[in-house]
Amino acid sequence: MAVARVALPVATEAAFDYWIPDGLAVDMGSLVRVRLGKRALTGVVVDVAPVSEIPREKLQPIVELRSDVPALPPDVLELAQFVAAYYQEPVGLALAQMLPPLAAKSRQTERTKGASSGAAIDAKKSRGASGVPLNPDQELAATAITESAGSFAPFLLQGITGSGKTEVYLAAAAACIAAGGQVLILVPEINLTPQFGQRIADALQSHLTVTLHSRLPAGERLRNWCAAASGNADLVLGTRLAVFTPMPRLGLIVVDEEHDPSFKQQEGVRYHARDVAVWRARQRNVPVVLGSATPSLESLVHAQRGRYRALLLPRRAVVSARLPDFRFVGNRDASAVEGIGAPLLSALAARLDRGEQSLVFINRRGFALSLLCSSCGWQAGCPRCSARLIVHRETTDLRCHHCGHVERLARACPDCGNVDLVPLGHGTQRLERALTATFPRARIVRIDRDSTKRKGAFAGVLDRVHAGDVDILVGTQMLAKGHDFPRLTLVGVLGADNALYSGDFRATERLAALLFQVSGRAGRADLPGEVIVQTDFPSHPLAQALAAHDFGRFAESLLAERRAATLPPFAHLALLTAEAPQRDAVDAFLAAASDAGRTAARAESSRVEVFAPVPAALPRRAGLERGQVLAHSTERSAMQRFLPQWRAAIEALPGRRVRFALDVDPLGFA
């Protein structure tokens, strides 16, 4: 009796043995339906053996072979094993990241038949090549990537905003496809896929491209996944989940905006798609390109040490375009209108007179950051989180952006009865209202997560901007990168100082990337651009770097700080987080876990340090008390030897009544 070991998408380290019914052609990587207790689950076969150590009478049979979905190939199974081992998660959960949405077979068989032959695919056919010749810097970069075909070669493509990194990607992709390969391009956000997809369609003639991201309808995502897995799709464009897509002819991987924190999964299997992409490129022996105007410090260090080859694009792709001028103005202007100072208002008026477009950037959605009682100082707080409630004027309610709690906008202070409640701080809704009142004839559009919930809403706004039907954009980081608006000549930045007060050691790095990126939206064509930053710190090193358009100099200062503090990229971290309804349970669990960690660390001769438990940055969220323990090491190998021992010790703790997660290489402290 042959048996199959099946990994299931459940939180357990073990795979389960099932006997294979006669006539069922089950092999490694096959998708099968099995029963686990009362549940029917789809799992992946990770091993096939002639016998099992478990008696036949205790085994259940495989219910069905999922022949409607291609089996996972050996390289994807190997990738799952790596992800499970490195990020300390069960292999079944890792494999679950790699599968498309799987509906019942009876509902999907007909839908997927066409995918295997290239039909019924959400594919874009080119309408002709872009025809824009590469400049010498772009040509050198594209040639270096193309000449490395067939070998593992990691590249860091660092180009200033507007330098034409996308043209380099497309030139390398065209060469790869012409040689018979498939291309995988990762972008950090779903909203970047429509515009990027159109550029791919315009540049790559008669080649099938598909998109993969979590907002696609399940059937469409399944069809696109099958097209990639069967080799029919020549190019896959997707967000972080696309890094796991089976691609039999994979020849090139591109990670655009590689610095972006969106590539890090924040729940479940906490993988980093950029790092997984590099590992997969080495596994498949293909080049990988990490592109950014503001590379992560980790990638910069790899380039400095020779692990990545640095490719530079130091000038803008449009010859007549130049980098924008910067002005740093006070943040406490007495004549400000809802936080918008006189210099920025004057600059907006000038652009309106000239028929040019402007962007007012603030990374806060909603109307105001909180509601304050002017009499007793009460502030509207979330009853389930250690956070303030955000004022939303459009729906006249208060919302928690952490847990989703919603309540009616208070008309009077619940503590003292005062009706003089003041909205504190500024969000995109408040700025939109203020600008509409100040410039009543201007066509103003707000872009944030609230205004783009409907399918196609964001793409519709972008079409209006390109058509010249928008004068002023008010938006969050959704507009900071990847968008090219030729008539946008002014960027105004509000609220940037908030990150300088943060306790997160990565906050300044993220702020620098954000400001360099958003400032790059101005002056990308023939019209000169200007950036006005409202700040209390005009002499801060970041302001000086922005004015000089020198991200590299600022990055070197950050690297010096990190080296002195032995923080990433000069150290490796693992963060154990725990949450439970009672604080005592969290504290007791983390204290025991910390002790267990120190015991396990002794085996590494003090090359791993485990710190004492502390409350999380947000101590209470969604009604749960939260805390964390940090492990630190300057040696990745020591950390990787330590983590399996620590996790095993944690899972063996008695009487555990908390939910915990282990985040390897965390981007911050939750």
What features would you describe in this structure?
- Helix content is about 30%, strand content about 20%.
- The chain has about 675 residues and is of the alpha/beta class.
- The chain has four domains: about 5-100, PriA, 3(prime) DNA-binding domain (GIY-YIG endonuclease), CATH 3.40.1440.60; about 135-315, Rossmann fold; about 325-370 and about 425-560, Rossmann fold, CATH 3.40.50; about 570-665, Alpha-Beta Plaits (2-Layer Sandwich), CATH 3.30.70.360.
- The strands form six sheets. Strands 9-10-8-11-12-7-13 form a seven-stranded parallel β-sheet, with helices on both faces. Strands 5-2-1-4-3-6 form a six-stranded mixed β-sheet.
- A hairpin with a 2-residue loop joins strand 27 and strand 28 (about 625-635).
- Helix 16 packs across helix 17.
- The longest helix has 19 residues, at about 585-600.
- Mean pLDDT is about 90; it is low at about 105-130.
Strand content: 15-25%
Query: Can you tell me the CATH class of the largest domain?
Result: Alpha Beta
Helical element count?
A: 17
- Separation of the first and last Cα atoms: 49 Å
Query: Total domains, how many?
Result: 4
**CATH-assigned homologous superfamily of the largest domain:** P-loop containing nucleotide triphosphate hydrolases
On the 0 to 100 scale, the average pLDDT is 90
Low-confidence stretches: 104-129
| Rg, Å, rounded | 27 Å
How many beta-strand runs? Answer: 29
Helix content: 25-40%
| Category from helices, strands and their pairing | alpha/beta
Q: Could you give a short account of the major beta sheet?
A: 7 strands, parallel
- Order of strands across the widest beta sheet? 9-10-8-11-12-7-13
- Basic shape: globular
